[in-house]
Amino acid sequence: MEKYNPPFEITQHMLTMVANISEKVTKLDDFSNLNKKPYLRKQAKINSIYSSLAIENNKLTPEQVKDVIDGKMVLGSKKDIQEVKNAYNAYEMINEVNPFSIKDLKRIHGVMTYLTIEESGEFRKGNEGVFDGKKCIFMCPPPEMVNNLMTQLFDWLNENKDKIHPLILSSVFHYEFVLIHPFSDGNGRTARLWQNLLLYKWKNIFEYLPIESRIHKYQNGYYKAIANCNNKGESTEFIEFMLKMIDETLDEALATPSIPINQETININKLLECLEKNIPLSANEIMRKLNIKSKNTLRNQYLHPAIKQGLIKLTIPDKPNSSNQMYYKD
């Protein structure tokens, strides 16, 4: 199979941006305290999901997206609600996905488009175009070329992951992925998540940075950069655009006041650590795990704050004081 090298130029402006971003990432070392601030982590994820889906015309508001993730009833289209559930599940898999694997790409796409399209997790079998609203930016390669093009792209990705800086590498991949448009639907949100995955493998801090929110804010510029690169036959302008989005996201993070770690946060983390995903425990079982003697202490200092932040859920949400009540994290 012939090797493919995506056409782009590494400019002085790119190198300057990479240096600036790398410096800001270093300054954000303290931001990794988000590991101890589950509410902020979750909020960043909600922002990412809302923005990435909104770019593709999902009509739910940020508040509705949060409510869907928290398991609350939301008035909206069934498809929009399912897309939020799917995106949340996909973003939750960031620690278990290999961004250099086509198999994992298909697996994530299958999660991202569960119950919303027929060809979920499979490369498209029909012709597609990329649209900005109703305007077609370009027609994508025919379906019979998709498997070969994606194999070449991943071969290039694996061959260059230690040669090209992740900030540039991930941006090139993002553009080339959109250009190939390998799936019948969900390409944009998958491409944006995949760039995050590549950046996360470089620095874990990118799990908490909602770059999608910045892209959503400059959505017209996003599509314009794609269209201009299509006309030029190379991705330089798109790479510079994405570096700008990442840089501005970091500026916003650096401007966010640091929130001190208080006792409530410590208690919530202890509670989350003793719960396994989707395995309900009773109050008595949690008390034993945390070595707590008082149910009032458990309720007031652990359960209620975590429930308020949407970090744990009740098995009987309409009867919070039921003697059969159990608690779990999803």
Structural overview:
The chain is mostly helical. It has two domains: 244 residues, Fic-like fold; 66 residues, Arc Repressor Mutant, subunit A (Orthogonal Bundle). It contains 14 helices and five strands. Strand 1 and strand 2 form a beta hairpin.
N- to C-terminal distance: 43 Å
Largest sheet: 3 strands, antiparallel
Gross CATH architecture of the largest domain: Orthogonal Bundle
Q: Which stretches are poorly predicted, pLDDT < 50 over at least 5 residues?
A: none
Provide the number of structural domains: 2
Could you name the CATH class of the largest domain? Answer: Mainly Alpha
CATH topology of the largest domain: Fic-like fold
Secondary structure topology:
Elements: H1 12-27, H2 38-55, H3 62-69, H4 78-91, H5 102-112, E1 129-132, E2 135-139, H6 143-160, H7 166-180, H8 187-202, H9 211-217, H10 219-232, H11 236-255, H12 263-274, E3 281-282, H13 283-290, H14 295-308, E4 313-314, E5 326-328
Antiparallel strand pairs: 1-2, 3-5, 4-5
Helix pairs in contact: 1-11, 2-3, 2-4, 2-9, 4-5, 5-8, 6-7, 7-8, 7-11, 9-10, 9-11, 10-11, 12-14
Record keyword descriptors for this entry.
330 residues; mainly alpha; Fic-like fold; Arc Repressor Mutant, subunit A; two-stranded antiparallel ribbon
